[in-house]
Structures are given as structure tokens and as C-alpha cells.
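Figure 2 data, in text form.
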Amino acid sequence: MLVITGPSGVGKGTLIQALRRHFPGLELSVSATTRPPRPSERDGREYHFLDPAEFERRASAGEFVEHAEYAGNRYGTLRSEVERAPDGLVLEIEVKGARQVRDALRDAVQVFIAPPSPEVLRERLLRRGTDQSDQIARRLAQAEEELRAKDEFEHVIENNDLERASAELVDLVATIWPTLKRGERT
């Protein structure tokens, strides 16, 4: 299992897309969340959208490998997601969740994606245009805390140049999983 973590807006999803083009067998875990879907999102594709009561019921039943609150909403990785990908699984999760995975699944490889600066991160969040200003402020406040945690992670990739960061992530995965099949997705 590969855990990709870092602040919101740092480019985790973009780097994972590039990684999966090189390793088609890698599956992306679909996280659960209590946040409402954005206009282009579909349940089960980007997230499993759960109301707060259902999320709590599943958390209480032990159905999550990890779960945490982030920017006013809850997020988590369902155990069923972890069990469905025999060739390799990528989790895109926040730092609190990554810590829980580290405790629960010791062999998971964890990579922290860092922005070149907090200012660049702020610009990326504004540019993507998916959040209201109060949501961006919460994400930036959370990012400050998360950036202080980057030294906890064995692997840190600074996403200052997308091509370089992508190549670094691909090289890392090729090193840790030398038997993982490479190829380009069509």
C-alpha cells in the first residue's frame, strides 16, 4: 500500500494520476467523506459521500482503517477499499489519517507531498476554484499544521515542478515495488 499525504491543494491527485499512468495495476482507494459532492463529482467515483450519521455508524462499527476530521468534514478509508486491490493500492489521505494507517499497517509506504511555499499553496487553492473563501482559510490553517509534520515521513517530495515531482514519485514506486508492472494507460 502506498499512502500519499500532504496539505490540500499540493497536487496529490495530479501526481497520483501520473503515477497510475506508469503503473496501471495500481488502484486508487475511494475515500468516504461527509462533505457534499462538488458539481462534477459522483458517489463511488471521487468519494463515497455519506451523511454524518452513516459515517459515524460505520466508524463505530470499525469499518474504517483510518478516519479523521478535516476542514469541518469527516474523511476516511473503508476497509473494503483496502481489501479490493490485490496488485497495489494508493491512498490519498490527510496527515492524521496517514498516522493512523502507519499504526495499523506497518508495511505501508508513506509519501508526504510538500508545496514549495505556503504562498504557492494558497495560490493553488484559489486557482482551482472549488472552495469558498472560508473553506480555503480552513484548509490553509490546517496546512500549516500538516507542513510541520512532514519530517515524520520517510519520503518527502516537493511539488514545485510537476514533471520532476512525478518522475520522483514514479522512481520511488519502481524502487519499492520492483515487480509492479509498468506501462502506459491508454
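Caption note: Residues 122 and 148 are 16 Å apart (CA to CA).
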